[in-house]
Amino acid sequence: MPDDMEMGDERTVLLTRDLSVRFPVRRGPGSRVTGHVRAVEGVNLRIERRETLGLVGESGCGKTTLGSSVLRPRDEATGQVLYRSADGRVLDVTALRGEDLATYRREVRMVFQDPHASLNPRLTLLEIIGEPLRVLLGLSGTELEDRAAEMLRRVGLRPGHLRRYPHAFSGGERQRVSIARTLVPGPRLVVADEAVSALDVSVRSQILNLLQDLQDELGLTYLFISHDLSVVQHLCDRVAVMYLGRIVELSGTDELYARPRHPYTEALISAVPVPDPRRRGSRERIRLAGDVPDPADPPAGCPFHTRCRYATERCVTEEPPLREVAPGRLVACHHAEDLRLAGAG
Ligand SMILES: Nc1ncnc2c1ncn2[C@@H]1O[C@H](COP(=O)(O)OP(=O)(O)OP(=O)(O)O)[C@@H](O)[C@H]1O
Ligand code: SF4
Ligand SMILES: [Mg+2]
């Protein structure tokens, strides 16, 4: 195995190295390329077996683009995405083909956001859940039906529902069907992009509990993407915070919420509603100045400096690298050691 395919520790399931994704911006006559949207910039992520890694940040910060670059090779991406398959081999996701691509499609799968849009209304649950079994595992007949029925039971629906169509089910039930389809071929790594965002609050916690139970039962690893910090807090072991395509903070969930180290994380946490009404007045909501800058023309220096209330002269000219400020805590801020930022506690 060449050196650049080295993933280190056996526990590592997925590793991105200096992953960037840039989309061309076309304008004017002849649709000339006038610039690039830097959707993902130099991301280094390591996901460990059976963990849930959260990915948070405002709309447009690059979460979906990062998640989709993990799921499949894409032309706009540079850098590396490495995956350790069930049989212990390291696959380079950017160069997948043939048998390796088939393995990857089976082992790394996605839960979609909107169960209304992602389920074909003309197909029965058997056809919906059976499709990956047919396409990825080559199953058919009673074997396929038994596997689909078993999966339906695992997600809390009755196997007797296999002949019904999606419209017969509620939003929460449809998301269970969608999860069944994702998990039925036996993936190891699951990317969930806003998997509960389209659901009513009352149904949300049931689906989150289901995802957690399935993780334990099936030994799954999750990359869990959400703009909602309270959702991430309850599910994730570690959280990565994104801003303008970059990871600006990464740490264990409890430490991150109790004591954020990056001013952007502090602002995001301050916007999470406090459940206890007696403590509601005690926390300051930090309103970020201005809009998110244009990702095709990000600010020089620290990309967050145009909105950061702690910015200094150094921040305007010098970009802070993502660095370890305490064991397991990565922060991209020049002043991480000096700032006393407010957490959720
Ligand atoms: N196919 C594409 N072509 C051009 N630009 C794109 C494409 N996909 C995403 N972008 C741009 O890349 C940036 C990141 O988008 P992305 O969808 O990854 O953000 P996100 O964090 O998932 O946002 P949201 O929370 O709204 O889902 C945005 O500026 C978006 O407009
Ligand atoms: S480096 Fe400066 S501008 Fe960037 S987050 Fe830290 S204090 Fe704010
Ligand atoms: Mg998205």
Verbal overview:
Residues 14-269 form the ABC transporter domain. The chain is of the alpha/beta class. It has eleven helices and twelve strands. 31% of the residues lie in helices and 24% in strands. The N and C termini lie far apart (47 Å). The protein has helices at residues 63-71, 98-107, 115-118, 125-137, 141-154, 171-183, 201-218, 229-235, 253-258, 263-270, 313-317, and strands spanning 12-27, 32-48, 52-56, 77-84, 90-92, 108-111, 189-193, 221-225, 238-243, 246-252, 323-326, 329-331. α4 (125-137) packs parallel to α6 (171-183). It has two domains: 3-236, 3-Layer(aba) Sandwich (Rossmann fold); 261-345, no CATH class. The structure holds adenosine-5'-triphosphate, iron/sulfur cluster and magnesium ion.
Short descriptors:
345 residues; alpha/beta; Rossmann fold; 2 domains; eight-stranded mixed beta sheet; four-stranded antiparallel beta sheet; 11 helices; globular; binds adenosine-5'-triphosphate; binds iron/sulfur cluster; ATP binding; P-loop_NTPase; ATP-binding; transport; nucleotide-binding
